[in-house]
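**Archive record**
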Amino acid sequence: MAEIDQKLDTVLVHAGRQPGDFHGFVNPPVVHASTVLFPSVEAMAPGAQKYSYGRRGTPTTEALEEAIAAIEGAAGAKLATSGLNAISLACLSCLRAGDHFLVADTVYGPTRHFCDTILPRYGIEIEYFEPWAAEGIRKRFKANTKAVFLEAPGSLTFEMQDVPAIAAAAREIGAFVLMDNTWATPVFFQPLAHGVDLSIQAGTKYIVGHSDVMIGTVAASARAWPGLLEMHGNLGLHVGPDDVYLALRGLRTMSVRLERHMRNALEVANWLAEQSCVAAIRYPALPQDPGHSLWKRDFKGACGLFAFDFTPDVTEQQAITFLNSLKLFGLGYSWGGFESLAIPVKLKGLRTAGTPVPLSQSVRLHIGLEDTRDLIADLAQAMAAMKA
C-alpha cells in the first residue's frame, strides 16, 4: 500500500504517536528512566534490545525526535537542553581542529559568544560574513572551510539571507550548512529542503509555546546525521521526560498558534508604521522591509517577533519610559509563548563584518495571542507617556 503524502498540519498532529504501542492512549507515556533491565546476557549485546539506558532514549524522547524529524524532512533529529545547547551540539558535530567556520554576522548573541569563546579553544577559526552575502560568499571560502552558519532573519535586526544560494555555494566545497530556524520554525520554512544540513530550533519558543520549558532540537540531513548522532551520544545529552512531554504537547498546536501570532504581528506592525515617532519596522513580512522579496520567495509565513526603530529625536530615557509604561507587554528576554513581550535593543559594537546597525533607539516586540486592539492601546498609552 502506497504511503499517503500528508500535509504539514497533519504531520504535526500524528507524527511520533503510536497509540497501538500504549494500549490505545493518544499520547505516549512520560517515562522516567535511567536503568533498563535485560532478560539475559545475550540480550545486552549492542542492538539486541530497543532501549538500553535512559540517557540513550525512551519512548518519550523517541516520540518527539520522530515528530521533529518528520516535520523537518530529516534523516534524524536529536534533543538538547536549550536552544543554545542545540547550537553548540550542531557546531561540534561537524567541526574539527583546524577547520574554518563562516558565521552570519547577525546571529543570536549567545551563538556569537559560543563561537568567540569556546570554539577557538579547540583550534577552530571563526569568520563572520555579511548576512546579505549570497554568491559573494565564495570569496570567504578557504581550503579548510568546513561549515557555514545561517540565521534568517537575523537576530534583533531581522535581515534576510538567501539561504538556497548560500547553501548551494557551500555544497560546492563540501561544507556543511547550519541554520538557526527558531523564528520561522518548519511550519513557515524548511531549511533541509533548501540545502541546509543541520536545522536548529530553540524549542523553548514556538514548539513549547507556553513559556514553561527549556529545550532545543537539531534535525539533520542524511550526510550530517551520523556526526550528529555520534556527538549527541558522546556528550551525554538528555532532556527530562516531563519537558519532552510538554514540548510534544505544544508541537501539536504550533501551526494554529503561529497563524495567530503572524496575524497579530502584522496588525501591530502596520499600526506602528503609521506612528510619527517610529522610523522603521524590522519585519520581513512587511512589503517595505528590505528582505521582503526573499521572505516572500522562500517562506510561507512569519512569526510574532519583530523590532522597530524610533525616530532619531527619541532619547534613550524616552525609550526607557516607553518600555516601563507598558502594561500588557512584559519585559522579558524570551519569546514564542502566548504572551506579548518587549525588550530594548542595543546593537552598538556587536557587529564585526560591516553590517550596519540602527543608531536610534530600538525595541524588539513579541506579539502574543492577546486581542490586538488591547495591545495597540497599550503601545499607544506608552508612547503618550514617553512623549510627555
